[in-house]
Amino acid sequence: MTTLHTMGQQHSRRSWAEPYKIKVVEPLRTTTREERDRAIAEAGWNTFLLHSRDVYIDLLTDSGTSAMSDRQWAGMMLGDEAYAGSVNFYRLEETVQKYYGYKHLVPTHQGRGAENLLSQAAITPGDHVPGNMYFTTTRFHQEKAGATFHDVIIDEAHDTASLHPFKGNIDLDKLQALIDEVGADKIPYVCMAATVNMAGGQPISMENARAVRELTDRHGIKVYLDATRAVENAYFIIEREAGYADKPLAEVLAEFCSYSDGATMSGKKDHLVNIGGWFATNDDELFEEVRNLVVVYEGLHTYGGMAGRDMEAMAIGVEESLDMPYMRSRIGQIQYLGELLERWDIPFVKPVGGHAIFLDARAFYPHLDQEQFPAQTLAANLYADSGIRSMERGIVSAGRDPETGEHRHPKLELTRLTIPRRVYTQAHLDLVAESVKACFDAHDSATGLRLVYEPKYLRFFQARFEPLP
Ligand SMILES: *Cc1c(COP(=O)(O)O)cnc(C)c1O
């Protein structure tokens, strides 16, 4: 395992450049400070409620915001829009089997569709599902199906200053303790996310995935991978873990997936498409159940809520995501932004993860209490400064405890700058860094927010706030 120091040396530094050139452009609209102040007020200080027309550089999410390639667009014309048995479904099935190695595939409209199906089919009320930190929709579906979620990620994941190279790892002692406490028969599966979105896009090591497989095998517990960014995870294994430096992405991905029984997938991330997802499993019985459920929630089992053309673009995207020059520039863009911020001593989660920079809002605004929503405040201030849209990943995203109704108080209070794939240039990232710096320099003037409207489910999407005096 390399330290961060030696990782830096590996990188010193023949510049990479984006391995593509621009064929179609989408003009960006700029706004004045007055327009932005008005827009963020109308949006209830929630960046999810802004109109994208008022946004200059959109770093809300990397979900469904990728630029497709000319090959993918050409593939759209090959859409076979038959209700049943579309050519594109078989092409996608074959591609996922080939690279991810699972036996059965069920397409879904996006990742949460797959999470819903897995949770409903595998969870019995009263069960317990351990995971390496929660993801919003994943945990929601597990809880809705009657399970209790348990965070079994290593402690370093909750420490923004820890330089552990694999902060997504599962803590085997925590997992063993849960098995001892509730019994293996109450744990339908371990939910293993690679990379871990909520921890800052942090990867899991191959060694850890293998160890989780060994431990769960001893107890007859299944492992389901949240494979949303598993290719990005494979890149980090190549970059940081001994023995993988010369291996192709596809080989690392296949080994990684081999330690799980199946996966849920949001194609809107790694697969470089604007919509789509899938569920996959090696378990014949569970497959039968999920293939039956999919027709109720998503669509027939050969389209699952996607058009034929979308399945074609996704199959092409799977192969493009496994191209090493592409992935180096993908992660390289985020590392570049991290280096700019580091130079100015801006507090953010290190080491830099796979899809975003996570600003440490507690360190930005040490004078604000967590219940004054520091990360939400930072996202609003960044937008007002420059029209850059980020999002909150802190107390608002964590929601309320379903038992007590109180706010959950996550250790991490972060504002996420998420980089869409193949969309922005280095010059855009320079601008982002400069705006973050301006907000950091003005941190004394931040007063925090008050929650004025709170929806019942996944509140961060639609909640509204007002500035505190
Ligand atoms: C986006 C995401 C999901 C949910 O996928 P959708 O396509 O948005 O429904 C699940 N897990 C992780 C880690 C994600 O990033």
TrEMBL record:
A single GO molecular function term of this UniProt record: tyrosine phenol-lyase activity
Q: Name one GO biological process term.
A: tyrosine metabolic process
- Residue numbers bearing the N6-(pyridoxal phosphate)lysine modification: K269
The coenzyme or cofactor needed here is: pyridoxal 5'-phosphate
Record flagged with keyword Cell wall biogenesis/degradation: no
E.C. no: 4.1.99.2
Reactions catalysed, semicolon-separated, are: L-tyrosine + H2O = phenol + pyruvate + NH4(+)
The Aromatic amino acid beta-eliminating lyase/threonine aldolase domain sits at 58-434
Give the main EC class.
lyase
- Keyword field: Lyase, Pyridoxal phosphate
Name the HAMAP family for this protein.
Tyr_phenol_lyase
How is the subunit organization of this protein annotated in UniProt? Homotetramer.
Which family does this protein fall into?
Belongs to the beta-eliminating lyase family.
Q: Which NCBIfam families match?
A: PRK13238.1, tyr_phenol_ly
Tell me what this protein is called: Tyrosine phenol-lyase
